[in-house]
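This part of the workshop introduces the protein records we will be handling. Getting from the letters to the C-alpha coordinates is the skill we practise here. The record below serves as our worked example for the rest of this section.

…
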Amino acid sequence: MSTPERPDRPEPAAAPGRTALATLAGTTLEWYDFFLYGTAAALIFDKQFFPSLSPAAGTLAAFSTLAVGFVARPLGGLVFGHFGDRVGRKATLVVSLLLMGIGSTLIGVIPTYDTIGFWAPVLLVVLRIVQGIGLGGEGAGATLMSMEHAPEGKRNLYAGFPQMGTPAGLVLANLVFLGTNALTGDAAFTGWGWRIPFLLSFVLVVIGLAIRLRVTESPSFHRVLEEDDVVRFPLAESLKAGFPRLALTLLAVVANSAVAYVFMVFTLSYGTKQLGHDKQFLVLSVTGAAVLWFATIPVWTRVADRYGRRTMFIGGSVAILAWCAAFFPLLDTGAAGPAVIALAGMGLIIPVTHCVQGSIIADTFPAHVRYSGSSLILQAGAILGGGLAPMISTALLNSGGSSTGVTWYLVAICGVSLAGAVALFRLVPETPARTARPQIGDEAWTAPR
Protein backbone atom coordinates (compact mmCIF):
# COMPACT_ATOMS: atom_id res chain seq x y z
CA MET A 1 0.00 0.00 0.00
CA SER A 2 1.18 3.53 -0.71
CA THR A 3 0.04 6.91 0.49
CA PRO A 4 -3.02 8.04 -1.50
CA GLU A 5 -2.90 11.23 -3.48
CA ARG A 6 -4.93 14.20 -2.38
CA PRO A 7 -8.42 13.71 -3.84
CA ASP A 8 -9.82 16.21 -6.36
CA ARG A 9 -13.30 15.63 -4.92
CA PRO A 10 -13.93 14.03 -1.55
CA GLU A 11 -16.38 11.18 -1.31
CA PRO A 12 -19.90 12.26 -0.48
CA ALA A 13 -20.42 12.21 3.27
CA ALA A 14 -22.14 9.10 4.55
CA ALA A 15 -25.04 9.36 6.97
CA PRO A 16 -23.45 9.10 10.43
CA GLY A 17 -26.09 6.60 11.55
CA ARG A 18 -25.44 4.30 8.59
CA THR A 19 -21.71 4.41 9.25
CA ALA A 20 -22.22 3.66 12.95
CA LEU A 21 -24.42 0.66 12.15
CA ALA A 22 -21.89 -0.58 9.58
CA THR A 23 -19.09 -0.47 12.14
CA LEU A 24 -21.34 -2.27 14.64
CA ALA A 25 -22.05 -5.01 12.08
CA GLY A 26 -18.36 -5.45 11.26
CA THR A 27 -17.17 -5.56 14.87
CA THR A 28 -19.99 -7.96 15.78
CA LEU A 29 -18.79 -10.44 13.15
CA GLU A 30 -15.15 -10.09 14.16
CA TRP A 31 -15.95 -10.56 17.86
CA TYR A 32 -18.20 -13.50 16.97
CA ASP A 33 -15.15 -15.26 15.57
CA PHE A 34 -12.94 -14.28 18.49
CA PHE A 35 -15.41 -15.27 21.22
CA LEU A 36 -16.34 -18.48 19.45
CA TYR A 37 -12.74 -19.50 19.90
CA GLY A 38 -12.84 -18.53 23.59
CA THR A 39 -15.94 -20.62 24.25
CA ALA A 40 -14.46 -23.58 22.38
CA ALA A 41 -11.18 -23.19 24.30
CA ALA A 42 -13.07 -23.33 27.60
CA LEU A 43 -15.25 -26.33 26.72
CA ILE A 44 -13.90 -28.30 23.72
CA PHE A 45 -10.27 -27.74 22.72
CA ASP A 46 -8.67 -29.45 25.73
CA LYS A 47 -10.22 -32.74 24.57
CA GLN A 48 -9.63 -32.29 20.82
CA PHE A 49 -6.13 -30.82 20.77
CA PHE A 50 -4.55 -31.72 24.14
CA PRO A 51 -6.00 -35.15 25.04
CA SER A 52 -2.72 -36.47 26.47
CA LEU A 53 -2.73 -33.86 29.25
CA SER A 54 -4.65 -33.96 32.51
CA PRO A 55 -7.95 -32.03 32.53
CA ALA A 56 -6.38 -29.12 34.44
CA ALA A 57 -3.28 -29.00 32.22
CA GLY A 58 -5.41 -29.40 29.09
CA THR A 59 -7.56 -26.42 30.08
CA LEU A 60 -4.45 -24.35 30.77
CA ALA A 61 -3.01 -25.32 27.38
CA ALA A 62 -6.26 -24.43 25.62
CA PHE A 63 -6.32 -21.02 27.35
CA SER A 64 -2.68 -20.57 26.32
CA THR A 65 -3.71 -20.79 22.65
CA LEU A 66 -6.39 -18.21 23.47
CA ALA A 67 -3.66 -15.92 24.81
CA VAL A 68 -1.65 -16.33 21.59
CA GLY A 69 -4.36 -14.42 19.74
CA PHE A 70 -3.91 -11.51 22.13
CA VAL A 71 -0.15 -11.55 21.59
CA ALA A 72 -0.78 -11.29 17.83
CA ARG A 73 -3.22 -8.40 18.23
CA PRO A 74 -0.53 -5.70 18.69
CA LEU A 75 1.11 -6.82 15.45
CA GLY A 76 -2.21 -6.40 13.66
CA GLY A 77 -2.80 -3.11 15.44
CA LEU A 78 0.58 -1.70 14.45
CA VAL A 79 0.40 -2.83 10.81
CA PHE A 80 -3.22 -1.83 10.25
CA GLY A 81 -2.75 1.35 12.28
CA HIS A 82 0.18 2.38 10.08
CA PHE A 83 -1.75 1.93 6.86
CA GLY A 84 -4.96 3.27 8.38
CA ASP A 85 -3.18 6.57 9.01
CA ARG A 86 -1.47 6.58 5.60
CA VAL A 87 -3.98 4.93 3.25
CA GLY A 88 -7.30 5.29 5.03
CA ARG A 89 -9.58 3.67 7.59
CA LYS A 90 -11.95 1.97 5.15
CA ALA A 91 -9.44 -0.19 3.24
CA THR A 92 -7.74 -1.47 6.38
CA LEU A 93 -11.05 -2.42 7.98
CA VAL A 94 -12.03 -4.45 4.93
CA VAL A 95 -8.74 -6.39 5.06
CA SER A 96 -9.02 -6.99 8.82
CA LEU A 97 -12.48 -8.51 8.38
CA LEU A 98 -11.17 -10.83 5.65
CA LEU A 99 -8.29 -12.04 7.83
CA MET A 100 -10.57 -12.85 10.73
CA GLY A 101 -13.01 -14.72 8.50
CA ILE A 102 -10.29 -16.78 6.82
CA GLY A 103 -8.70 -17.71 10.16
CA SER A 104 -12.00 -18.81 11.71
CA THR A 105 -13.17 -20.77 8.68
CA LEU A 106 -9.90 -22.73 8.54
CA ILE A 107 -10.14 -23.56 12.27
CA GLY A 108 -13.37 -25.34 11.32
CA VAL A 109 -11.51 -27.77 9.03
CA ILE A 110 -8.16 -28.48 10.74
CA PRO A 111 -7.57 -32.07 11.91
CA THR A 112 -7.46 -32.83 15.64
CA TYR A 113 -4.68 -34.39 17.73
CA ASP A 114 -6.00 -37.91 17.15
CA THR A 115 -5.51 -37.44 13.38
CA ILE A 116 -2.18 -35.60 12.98
CA GLY A 117 -0.79 -35.48 16.51
CA PHE A 118 1.54 -32.61 17.42
CA TRP A 119 0.71 -30.64 14.27
CA ALA A 120 -2.92 -30.16 15.30
CA PRO A 121 -2.20 -27.68 18.14
CA VAL A 122 0.48 -26.07 15.96
CA LEU A 123 -2.06 -25.34 13.23
CA LEU A 124 -4.51 -24.13 15.86
CA VAL A 125 -1.93 -21.63 17.15
CA VAL A 126 -1.10 -20.41 13.63
CA LEU A 127 -4.74 -19.75 12.82
CA ARG A 128 -5.22 -18.12 16.21
CA ILE A 129 -2.41 -15.73 15.26
CA VAL A 130 -4.23 -14.90 12.02
CA GLN A 131 -7.37 -14.18 14.06
CA GLY A 132 -5.42 -11.97 16.44
CA ILE A 133 -3.85 -9.94 13.62
CA GLY A 134 -7.28 -9.38 12.06
CA LEU A 135 -8.89 -8.26 15.31
CA GLY A 136 -5.88 -6.08 16.11
CA GLY A 137 -6.66 -4.04 13.03
CA GLU A 138 -10.38 -3.88 13.77
CA GLY A 139 -10.63 -2.59 17.33
CA ALA A 140 -9.29 0.94 16.98
CA GLY A 141 -10.23 1.40 13.32
CA ALA A 142 -13.95 0.77 13.73
CA THR A 143 -14.14 3.16 16.69
CA LEU A 144 -12.38 5.89 14.70
CA MET A 145 -14.55 5.38 11.63
CA SER A 146 -17.75 5.82 13.63
CA MET A 147 -16.47 8.59 15.92
CA GLU A 148 -15.01 10.62 13.05
CA HIS A 149 -18.41 10.56 11.30
CA ALA A 150 -20.20 11.65 14.50
CA PRO A 151 -22.37 14.79 14.63
CA GLU A 152 -21.26 17.56 16.97
CA GLY A 153 -21.69 16.65 20.62
CA LYS A 154 -22.17 12.91 20.04
CA ARG A 155 -18.61 11.57 19.87
CA ASN A 156 -19.05 9.18 22.80
CA LEU A 157 -22.38 7.87 21.48
CA TYR A 158 -20.99 7.11 18.03
CA ALA A 159 -17.71 5.76 19.36
CA GLY A 160 -19.85 3.41 21.46
CA PHE A 161 -21.45 1.67 18.48
CA PRO A 162 -18.36 -0.43 17.65
CA GLN A 163 -18.03 -1.17 21.39
CA MET A 164 -21.50 -2.73 21.21
CA GLY A 165 -20.03 -5.26 18.79
CA THR A 166 -18.20 -6.93 21.70
CA PRO A 167 -21.29 -8.14 23.59
CA ALA A 168 -23.21 -8.61 20.32
CA GLY A 169 -20.48 -10.91 19.03
CA LEU A 170 -20.52 -12.82 22.31
CA VAL A 171 -24.29 -13.27 22.15
CA LEU A 172 -24.13 -14.43 18.54
CA ALA A 173 -21.25 -16.84 19.21
CA ASN A 174 -22.91 -18.37 22.27
CA LEU A 175 -26.30 -18.76 20.59
CA VAL A 176 -24.76 -20.47 17.56
CA PHE A 177 -22.64 -22.63 19.88
CA LEU A 178 -25.67 -23.68 21.95
CA GLY A 179 -27.90 -24.15 18.91
CA THR A 180 -25.38 -26.41 17.18
CA ASN A 181 -24.87 -28.39 20.37
CA ALA A 182 -28.62 -28.88 20.75
CA LEU A 183 -29.00 -30.04 17.14
CA THR A 184 -26.10 -32.49 17.15
CA GLY A 185 -26.11 -33.74 20.77
CA ASP A 186 -23.23 -33.58 23.25
CA ALA A 187 -21.20 -36.50 21.91
CA ALA A 188 -21.43 -35.47 18.25
CA PHE A 189 -20.82 -31.83 19.11
CA THR A 190 -17.63 -32.65 21.03
CA GLY A 191 -16.50 -34.92 18.20
CA TRP A 192 -17.27 -32.83 15.10
CA GLY A 193 -20.23 -30.50 15.61
CA TRP A 194 -18.06 -27.76 17.14
CA ARG A 195 -16.71 -27.13 13.63
CA ILE A 196 -20.04 -25.86 12.29
CA PRO A 197 -19.99 -22.47 14.07
CA PHE A 198 -16.48 -21.82 12.74
CA LEU A 199 -17.48 -22.74 9.18
CA LEU A 200 -20.45 -20.38 9.46
CA SER A 201 -17.91 -17.54 9.74
CA PHE A 202 -17.47 -17.62 5.96
CA VAL A 203 -21.12 -16.72 5.35
CA LEU A 204 -21.13 -14.04 8.03
CA VAL A 205 -17.96 -12.39 6.71
CA VAL A 206 -19.43 -12.18 3.19
CA ILE A 207 -22.41 -10.35 4.68
CA GLY A 208 -20.11 -8.10 6.70
CA LEU A 209 -18.03 -7.19 3.66
CA ALA A 210 -21.13 -6.27 1.68
CA ILE A 211 -22.08 -3.83 4.47
CA ARG A 212 -18.59 -2.45 5.07
CA LEU A 213 -17.80 -1.75 1.41
CA ARG A 214 -20.72 0.69 1.28
CA VAL A 215 -19.23 2.96 3.97
CA THR A 216 -17.41 6.11 2.84
CA GLU A 217 -14.00 7.12 4.13
CA SER A 218 -13.70 9.05 7.38
CA PRO A 219 -14.09 12.85 7.04
CA SER A 220 -11.13 13.27 9.41
CA PHE A 221 -8.89 11.25 7.11
CA HIS A 222 -10.08 13.28 4.10
CA ARG A 223 -9.06 16.39 6.00
CA VAL A 224 -5.64 14.86 6.69
CA LEU A 225 -5.19 14.30 2.94
CA GLU A 226 -6.40 17.77 2.03
CA GLU A 227 -3.99 19.37 4.48
CA ASP A 228 -1.14 17.10 3.29
CA ASP A 229 -0.69 15.93 6.88
CA VAL A 230 0.12 12.27 6.22
CA VAL A 231 3.32 11.34 8.07
CA ARG A 232 5.78 8.62 7.16
CA PHE A 233 5.88 6.95 10.59
CA PRO A 234 2.56 7.70 12.35
CA LEU A 235 3.29 5.43 15.32
CA ALA A 236 6.45 7.34 16.20
CA GLU A 237 4.57 10.63 15.82
CA SER A 238 1.79 9.40 18.10
CA LEU A 239 4.28 8.94 20.96
CA LYS A 240 4.49 12.73 21.22
CA ALA A 241 1.39 12.47 23.40
CA GLY A 242 3.93 11.82 26.14
CA PHE A 243 4.70 8.82 28.34
CA PRO A 244 2.64 9.93 31.37
CA ARG A 245 -0.57 10.26 29.38
CA LEU A 246 0.02 7.09 27.36
CA ALA A 247 0.85 5.04 30.47
CA LEU A 248 -2.10 6.33 32.49
CA THR A 249 -4.52 5.74 29.60
CA LEU A 250 -3.26 2.16 29.34
CA LEU A 251 -3.63 1.57 33.07
CA ALA A 252 -7.14 3.06 33.08
CA VAL A 253 -8.48 0.57 30.50
CA VAL A 254 -6.59 -2.63 31.38
CA ALA A 255 -8.95 -3.86 34.11
CA ASN A 256 -12.04 -3.81 31.91
CA SER A 257 -10.42 -6.25 29.51
CA ALA A 258 -9.22 -8.58 32.28
CA VAL A 259 -12.57 -8.68 34.07
CA ALA A 260 -14.51 -9.16 30.83
CA TYR A 261 -12.49 -12.22 29.80
CA VAL A 262 -12.71 -13.83 33.22
CA PHE A 263 -16.47 -13.27 33.04
CA MET A 264 -16.87 -14.44 29.42
CA VAL A 265 -14.35 -17.28 29.17
CA PHE A 266 -12.85 -18.47 32.47
CA THR A 267 -16.24 -18.65 34.19
CA LEU A 268 -17.42 -21.26 31.66
CA SER A 269 -14.55 -23.60 32.48
CA TYR A 270 -14.65 -22.94 36.23
CA GLY A 271 -18.41 -23.24 36.52
CA THR A 272 -18.67 -26.55 34.67
CA LYS A 273 -15.52 -28.30 35.94
CA GLN A 274 -15.27 -26.98 39.51
CA LEU A 275 -18.85 -26.15 40.49
CA GLY A 276 -20.71 -28.74 38.42
CA HIS A 277 -23.03 -26.30 36.64
CA ASP A 278 -24.64 -27.42 33.41
CA LYS A 279 -22.80 -26.12 30.34
CA GLN A 280 -25.96 -24.83 28.67
CA PHE A 281 -27.03 -23.03 31.84
CA LEU A 282 -23.74 -21.16 32.11
CA VAL A 283 -23.53 -20.25 28.44
CA LEU A 284 -27.11 -18.97 28.50
CA SER A 285 -26.44 -16.98 31.68
CA VAL A 286 -23.35 -15.35 30.16
CA THR A 287 -25.36 -14.67 27.00
CA GLY A 288 -28.13 -12.99 28.99
CA ALA A 289 -25.57 -10.83 30.77
CA ALA A 290 -24.08 -9.87 27.41
CA VAL A 291 -27.53 -8.72 26.26
CA LEU A 292 -27.62 -6.36 29.27
CA TRP A 293 -24.12 -5.18 28.36
CA PHE A 294 -25.20 -4.47 24.76
CA ALA A 295 -28.45 -2.71 25.73
CA THR A 296 -26.90 -0.34 28.28
CA ILE A 297 -24.00 0.97 26.16
CA PRO A 298 -26.14 3.62 24.35
CA VAL A 299 -27.48 4.77 27.73
CA TRP A 300 -24.03 5.32 29.21
CA THR A 301 -22.56 6.95 26.09
CA ARG A 302 -25.42 9.47 26.09
CA VAL A 303 -24.67 10.19 29.75
CA ALA A 304 -21.00 10.75 28.83
CA ASP A 305 -21.92 13.14 25.99
CA ARG A 306 -24.28 15.13 28.22
CA TYR A 307 -22.44 15.20 31.54
CA GLY A 308 -18.86 14.21 30.75
CA ARG A 309 -16.82 11.02 31.00
CA ARG A 310 -14.80 11.64 34.17
CA THR A 311 -17.32 10.97 36.93
CA MET A 312 -18.97 8.15 34.99
CA PHE A 313 -15.69 6.36 34.20
CA ILE A 314 -14.28 6.65 37.73
CA GLY A 315 -17.62 5.62 39.27
CA GLY A 316 -17.73 2.63 36.92
CA SER A 317 -14.16 1.70 37.90
CA VAL A 318 -15.17 1.67 41.58
CA ALA A 319 -18.28 -0.40 40.84
CA ILE A 320 -16.39 -3.03 38.84
CA LEU A 321 -13.81 -3.38 41.64
CA ALA A 322 -16.55 -3.91 44.22
CA TRP A 323 -18.39 -6.44 42.06
CA CYS A 324 -15.20 -8.41 41.44
CA ALA A 325 -14.86 -8.83 45.21
CA ALA A 326 -18.36 -10.36 45.32
CA PHE A 327 -18.34 -12.26 42.00
CA PHE A 328 -16.68 -15.56 42.90
CA PRO A 329 -18.19 -15.78 46.42
CA LEU A 330 -21.60 -15.66 44.70
CA LEU A 331 -20.58 -18.30 42.15
CA ASP A 332 -19.05 -20.52 44.83
CA THR A 333 -22.40 -21.01 46.55
CA GLY A 334 -23.01 -23.53 43.77
CA ALA A 335 -26.63 -22.41 43.43
CA ALA A 336 -28.14 -21.25 40.15
CA GLY A 337 -29.71 -18.07 41.54
CA PRO A 338 -26.52 -16.46 42.90
CA ALA A 339 -24.69 -17.48 39.71
CA VAL A 340 -27.24 -15.64 37.57
CA ILE A 341 -26.97 -12.59 39.83
CA ALA A 342 -23.15 -12.64 39.65
CA LEU A 343 -23.12 -12.83 35.84
CA ALA A 344 -25.95 -10.32 35.35
CA GLY A 345 -24.07 -7.88 37.59
CA MET A 346 -21.08 -8.12 35.30
CA GLY A 347 -23.33 -7.45 32.32
CA LEU A 348 -24.60 -4.26 33.96
CA ILE A 349 -21.29 -2.92 35.32
CA ILE A 350 -18.72 -3.72 32.62
CA PRO A 351 -20.32 -1.39 30.00
CA VAL A 352 -19.98 1.71 32.22
CA THR A 353 -16.25 1.90 31.51
CA HIS A 354 -16.13 -0.19 28.35
CA CYS A 355 -18.47 2.09 26.39
CA VAL A 356 -16.19 5.15 26.51
CA GLN A 357 -12.73 3.64 26.62
CA GLY A 358 -12.54 3.78 22.81
CA SER A 359 -13.27 7.51 22.70
CA ILE A 360 -10.94 8.21 25.64
CA ILE A 361 -8.11 6.43 23.82
CA ALA A 362 -8.91 8.07 20.46
CA ASP A 363 -9.01 11.58 21.95
CA THR A 364 -5.42 11.09 23.08
CA PHE A 365 -4.20 11.50 19.49
CA PRO A 366 -4.68 13.86 16.52
CA ALA A 367 -6.38 12.55 13.39
CA HIS A 368 -3.23 12.00 11.32
CA VAL A 369 -1.80 9.46 13.81
CA ARG A 370 -4.98 8.43 15.64
CA TYR A 371 -5.26 4.90 14.19
CA SER A 372 -1.67 3.99 15.09
CA GLY A 373 -1.75 5.54 18.56
CA SER A 374 -5.15 4.11 19.46
CA SER A 375 -4.12 0.64 18.29
CA LEU A 376 -0.99 0.78 20.44
CA ILE A 377 -2.92 1.53 23.64
CA LEU A 378 -5.89 -0.72 22.88
CA GLN A 379 -3.87 -3.82 22.02
CA ALA A 380 -1.37 -3.37 24.86
CA GLY A 381 -4.33 -3.22 27.23
CA ALA A 382 -5.83 -6.31 25.63
CA ILE A 383 -2.65 -8.33 26.22
CA LEU A 384 -2.06 -7.18 29.80
CA GLY A 385 -5.74 -7.58 30.62
CA GLY A 386 -7.84 -10.02 28.59
CA GLY A 387 -5.10 -12.07 26.96
CA LEU A 388 -3.54 -13.22 30.21
CA ALA A 389 -6.59 -13.22 32.47
CA PRO A 390 -8.04 -16.72 31.76
CA MET A 391 -4.57 -18.29 31.90
CA ILE A 392 -3.58 -16.49 35.11
CA SER A 393 -6.94 -17.33 36.68
CA THR A 394 -6.55 -21.01 35.81
CA ALA A 395 -3.01 -21.08 37.23
CA LEU A 396 -4.16 -19.38 40.44
CA LEU A 397 -7.03 -21.83 40.76
CA ASN A 398 -4.78 -24.85 40.23
CA SER A 399 -2.16 -23.62 42.70
CA GLY A 400 -4.52 -22.47 45.45
CA GLY A 401 -7.34 -24.94 45.02
CA SER A 402 -10.00 -22.22 45.35
CA SER A 403 -11.20 -19.04 43.64
CA THR A 404 -9.78 -16.76 46.35
CA GLY A 405 -6.60 -16.08 44.40
CA VAL A 406 -8.61 -15.22 41.30
CA THR A 407 -10.70 -12.74 43.30
CA TRP A 408 -7.61 -11.02 44.68
CA TYR A 409 -6.11 -10.89 41.17
CA LEU A 410 -9.21 -9.14 39.79
CA VAL A 411 -9.47 -6.74 42.73
CA ALA A 412 -5.79 -5.83 42.38
CA ILE A 413 -5.96 -5.12 38.65
CA CYS A 414 -9.16 -3.10 39.15
CA GLY A 415 -7.39 -1.08 41.83
CA VAL A 416 -4.54 -0.32 39.43
CA SER A 417 -7.00 0.81 36.74
CA LEU A 418 -8.93 2.99 39.18
CA ALA A 419 -5.73 4.73 40.27
CA GLY A 420 -4.75 5.18 36.61
CA ALA A 421 -8.13 6.69 35.74
CA VAL A 422 -8.02 9.18 38.63
CA ALA A 423 -4.49 10.26 37.69
CA LEU A 424 -5.37 10.49 33.97
CA PHE A 425 -8.29 12.84 34.51
CA ARG A 426 -6.15 14.99 36.82
CA LEU A 427 -3.43 15.17 34.18
CA VAL A 428 -5.91 16.03 31.43
CA PRO A 429 -8.87 17.91 32.93
CA GLU A 430 -12.07 17.19 31.07
CA THR A 431 -13.59 19.77 28.76
CA PRO A 432 -17.11 20.70 30.00
CA ALA A 433 -19.51 18.28 28.35
CA ARG A 434 -21.94 20.91 27.14
CA THR A 435 -19.30 22.52 24.94
CA ALA A 436 -19.29 19.25 22.98
CA ARG A 437 -15.69 19.88 21.92
CA PRO A 438 -13.11 17.11 22.25
CA GLN A 439 -9.94 18.07 24.05
CA ILE A 440 -7.90 16.79 21.18
CA GLY A 441 -9.58 17.48 17.90
CA ASP A 442 -8.79 17.25 14.22
CA GLU A 443 -8.15 20.96 13.71
CA ALA A 444 -5.53 21.56 16.38
CA TRP A 445 -3.50 19.34 18.65
CA THR A 446 -0.54 19.75 20.92
CA ALA A 447 1.11 17.14 23.09
CA PRO A 448 0.24 17.59 26.77
CA ARG A 449 2.97 19.22 28.84
In short: The chain has one domain: 16-220+232-431. Residues 5-13, 432-449 have pLDDT under 50 and may be disordered. The CA atoms of residues 181 and 188 lie 8 Å apart.
